[in-house]
User: Fold this.
Amino acid sequence: MTPDQQDVSDSRSHQPSLSPTDEELWSAFASGSDAALDALIERYRAPLYWYLLLSTGKQDAAARHSRDAWALLAAYRQPFEGFASFKSWLYGVATQSAVPATHSEAFGFGDLLDDLKRAPQTSRRGQIFFAIADMARAERQPFLLATLVGLPVPDVAKACNFTVERTWRCLEKAYARLARSDPFERAGVSDGL
Assistant:
């Protein structure tokens, strides 16, 4: 290989690779590409599980609802409608799949507390957990979708079956509750941990 050929091949290898968008992958899946669904699952496996874990408070429920959401989507295999993005639609499906498990009386502290004790960033995770655990489901779901997931408020409203106005009220309550809370004190965790 000549030096000129080396320069050309080096410049090609440093070009950024553009991965397909979520919407392009879903469109490919709807057109018959199972590999596209696998790519979406890989892209959202951890964030969706984390959202569902914070929503339900139970590891087994989070895993089950994640599987259920993907199974529903895999069976659908049509273009999604009504949401601003595939991500909004995915979290909407997952939220609706998990609704019975997200009632406050079903929120399980045991699984997460065990994880928090073993986690290297206990104080950060503990702070988030205790603040979220104190929220009623009507506040917790919109808060998680808007802040953790980053969905636009109209899509949060659709995912929760709320009006946009109710969603804003729930978010205001959730943010006010977080501003008033001291989760470290309630958890018995010192700032030094």
Observations:
- The chain has one domain: 21-187.
- Confidence is low (pLDDT under 50) at residues 7-13, 101-113, 183-193.
